[in-house]
Fold this protein.
Amino acid sequence: MNGSQLPPLLPPSASTVSGELDLLFAYITAISVFFAVGIAVALAVLAVLYRRKPGDGPPPQIHGSTALELVWTVIPLLIVMSFFVWGTDLFFRMRTPPIEPLEIFVVGKQWMWKIQHQEGPREINELHIPVGQPIKLTMTSEDVIHSFSVPAFRVKQDVLPGRYTTMWFEATKTGTFHLFCTEYCGTEHAGMGGSIIVMEPNEYQVWLGGGGAGESLTDAGERLFGQLGCATCHGDQAGARGPSLTGVYNSEVSLAGGGSVTADESYLRESILEPATNIVAGYDAIMPTYRGQISEEGVLQLVAYIRSLGDPAAAGATGAAAAGEAGQ
Ligand code: HEC
Ligand SMILES: [Cu+2]
């Protein structure tokens, strides 16, 4: 009997934040509509009720009321503060990935999404993930600015050339959801989409194994490290021309110009593509630039390999988590 179906008002709600985000959106919309309509109606009704009638003189003049001023200042302040506190709290939770998410790497280019899983499989315009597990994406672009958007998860993050951006989400439903590029990026921007395929964890394991691509991201990075001759300078032997890369990930690196930086993914990427930008204290600027010789996917593989060489902060984090548990 119900032949014609209206398009849904909202996309499906399929992540740990989507329900709460919709609720916050509805809350802000409801309050805005309530006041917009209320004020418009009050204005019309009062204009009619208190219009000047024949024989009326000038009305009594009112010269301010502190009580009234306080009421119309404090109540709106409390209302907008509730938007702010709830919105900020949700924003921080949406920006901060939980400990030990499943990490996946994304490279955008005109006009496709290239995706690499840690365990090896790669895919284009499709992202297979397990349900009920936090996923962290580390993303970059080979050309212009793109934006990775999954409406069903209520997440969106710009993907920029020359640097890494990250985002995280956790799917709560299995199924296939739309992926869009939401930054106009040229002629075929509209076609730069794909699907997120959310699977049961055991199905995802089968999918990973069945990908046929045996080489993991770390192994691919190790192979590149050998092929590009990085090991000739970073060989870990005494008197090597370059610093040891073991344990460098997430450590504080002292720079030749003074100061220090945390060796995160972006720093490692920059060290490979623009070695002259930050020179490690105690070393000469002899490292050649690899810009133009390695694709962004290759750089992600090298970064994954360098990360696998040890991470002092991860050891610290596990220690802190263990201490926290012991304290409870
Ligand atoms: C000719 C020798 C040489 C080669 C080849 C070389 N490097 Fe370097 N690398 C250095 C030197 C010297 C430094 C320290 C000075 C600096 O920061 O530029 C360095 C610094 C680094 C750093 C920063 C390390 C830290 O402690 O902060 C990284 C990461 C790195 N190299 C990665 C690589 C990778 C990956 C390759 C291969 C694609 C490579 N290097 C090839 C000499 C080399
Ligand atoms: Cu795009």
Notes: Residues 108, 146, 181, 183, 185, 189, 192 surround copper (II) ion (ligand 2) (CB under 6 Å). Residues 105 and 300 are 7 Å apart (CA to CA). The radius of gyration is 28 Å. The chain has eight helices and twelve strands.
